[in-house]
Design a protein that fits this description.
- Helix content is 88%, strand content 0%.
- With 277 residues, the chain is mostly helical.
- Helix 2 runs antiparallel to helix 3 and helix 4 packs antiparallel against helix 5.
- The chain starts with a helix and ends with a helix.
């Protein structure tokens, strides 16, 4: 036996030994994950299923159970990707029925009711005898009807509210317009009253102006009838004449006094000179 043959036989022996060992570890990890899943320890179960896939990445059971563990943790986006990826690769109708059933459940939990209905329909195409899928499909349909009814009721209520708001606004606008018209009428009445008062004042003033010349003439006539009165700060002609004569007499006295004083001074000077001689 040549060396090449020995190498091939050794490789086959190793594979025969290793493959069962890897499969056993994968099965063991799946069983541990299932035990944790039953205890509702879904996060720990997820870890074990991922370990199983590390040992055997094509393990359908480990991948399917991983999707279930993600769904139980409400990781709906991850669960949906997990089931959808498996469905794209799967050809077995029974498995496709299971996968689309779980896809429908995940979409329904994500409030995507219409898409969940289509997923349930696809599940029944591959597994038509599933009573559970039929039940879920009917539930999703009723939920969709209820959602549509709620939407219609909401739309009707919104329309009603909008109409009420419009009616209330129209009423308010009409009321505001009436108030504006009322204010205009009041302003107009006030303006008319002001004009009337102004006309009365103008008439009264005109009458006063007409009566004013007569009153002025009466005052003038009264002044002419009264004797002339001496105004403060002025003197009569007779008093002025007497005052002038008094001033002239005083002036004469002053001049006479001055003349006498000069005569006396001359006499005194003459005497003084004669004595010096």
């Amino acid at each position: 036996m040549n060396k090449t043959m020995k190498y091939i036989l050794l490789l086959i022996g190793i594979l025969v030994f290793v493959l069962p060992s890897a499969a056993q570890k994968e099965r063991k990890l799946i069983r541990e994950g299932n035990g944790l899943y039953d205890k509702q320890e879904f996060e720990k179960a997820e870890v074990e299923y991922r370990k199983a896939l590390d040992k055997k990445d094509e393990s359908y059971e480990a991948a399917f159970n991983l999707g279930d563990a993600l769904y139980k943790q409400k990781k709906y986006d991850e669960a949906l990707r997990q089931f959808s990826t498996l469905a794209e690769q799967e050809t077995n109708k029974e498995r496709l029925g299971e996968l689309y059933h779980n896809i429908g459940n995940t979409l329904l939990s994500m409030q995507k009711t219409g898409e969940s209905i289509e997923a349930y329909k696809e599940s029944l195409r591959n597994r038509p005898a599933s009573e559970e899928t039929k039940y879920n499909l009917e539930f999703a349909r009723r939920k969709q009807q209820q959602e549509q009814q709620n939407k219609d009721n909401k739309d009707n209520q919104d329309n009603k509210d909008n109409q009420n708001n419009k009616d209330n606004q129209d009423k308010q606008d009409s009321k505001d317009q009436q108030n504006q018209d009322k204010d205009k009428d009041q302003n107009k009445d006030q303006q008319n009253q002001d004009n009337k008062n102004q006309d009365n004042q103008d008439q009264k003033k005109d009458q006063q102006d007409k009566n004013q010349p007569n009153k002025d003439q009466q005052n003038k006539d009264q002044q002419e009838q009264q004797p002339p009165q001496q105004q403060p700060g002025k003197i009569s002609k007779e008093d002025a004449q007497r005052l002038l004569e008094a001033l002239q007499n005083d002036e004469k006295k002053v001049q006479e006094k001055v003349r006498k004083e000069k005569v006396q001074q001359q006499k005194a000077k003459k005497l003084k000179i004669e004595k010096d001689w």
